[in-house]
Design brief:
Elements: E1 4-5, E2 17-23, H1 28-39, E3 44-51, H2 57-65, E4 69-71, E5 75-76, E6 79-80, H3 83-94, E7 101-104, H4 113-118, E8 123-127, H5 139-146, E9 150-157, E10 167-174, H6 181-204, E11 208-211, E12 214-217, E13 224-225
Parallel strand pairs: 2-3, 2-7, 3-4, 7-8, 10-13
Antiparallel strand pairs: 1-11, 5-6, 8-9, 9-10, 11-12
Helix pairs in contact: 1-2, 1-6
The protein binds 5-O-phosphono-beta-D-ribofuranosylamine.
């Protein structure tokens, strides 16, 4: 297998990698990303925020930041439509933004094989646990129930499974005895908000490659754990 570059091109300050952030919730990760992109002149830019629900805080945050938003709901004209129909509309509305990378940040839907085949190695996700441990929608709850003392966050490529794609980078976060879901989530988010802009920068620099041996990040070795 030849080495495959994640993201597709090496970006420049004048032509940053054009990202669409998909979300379904509070959008704190999107906001942290946009702040990092603006304050540090990064090689990636959030050109649009895509939500699958109205009335969520993430949309308010995007509007306050002046980032264009698209809301494409699953239900349409009073009925539910298929995942593929929903995604087709997202892609059609997204066209004018010339998106190069889809960045999932609390997007609570699985993308279909059809979507992913068009966007191979160009969809990333952040998950609030140290994958492969505790995938799924209730990571913090399950971490606490397991009584482990260590959790983390993970940035990975998206495949058809639930949080199963190739891991690009991870951070470790301690779990304290008196944690509840809210304190743990807040501590993990601090690391998430640092890690995501960093990994997107590696991608935009053209440093992230998939090889037979797994993932290679030029200038580092293997998936990044810290
Ligand atoms: C984050 O913890 C992220 O890891 C997970 O969903 C949460 C989104 O939080 N996928 P927010 O909407 O960015 O505040």
């Amino acid at each position: 297998m030849d080495s495959i570059s994640v993201g597709g091109r090496t970006a420049t300050v004048d032509e940053p990698l054009r990202c669409a952030v998909f979300l379904s919730g509070s959008g704190s990760g999107m906001e942290a990303l946009v702040h990092a992109q603006r304050n540090q002149t990064l090689l990636h830019q959030t050109v649009v925020v895509v939500a699958n629900k109205t009335g969520i805080e993430g949309l308010e945050r995007a509007r306050r930041l002046g980032v264009p938003t698209l809301v494409v709901e699953q239900n349409h004209e009073g009925g539910s439509r298929s995942r593929e129909e929903h995604e087709a509309e997202i892609l059609s509305q997204m066209k004018e933004y010339n998106v190069e990378l889809v960045v999932l940040a609390g997007y609570m839907r699985l993308l279909s094989p059809l979507f992913l085949s068009d966007w191979t190695n160009r969809v990333v996700n952040i998950h609030p646990s140290f994958l492969p441990h505790f995938p799924g929608a209730h990571a913090h709850r399950e971490v606490l129930a397991s009584q482990t003392t260590i959790t983390g966050c993970t940035v990975h490529l998206v495949d058809e499974g639930m949080d199963t794609g190739t891991i690009l980078a991870q951070r470790i976060v301690p779990v304290f005895k008196d944690d509840d879901e809210s304190t743990l989530s807040a501590r993990v988010k601090v690391e998430e908000h640092r890690l995501y802009p960093q990994v997107l920068t590696w991608i935009a620099e053209g440093r992230v490659h998939l090889t037979e041996g797994g993932v290679s990040i030029v200038g580092a070795e293997g998936p990044q754990v810290g």
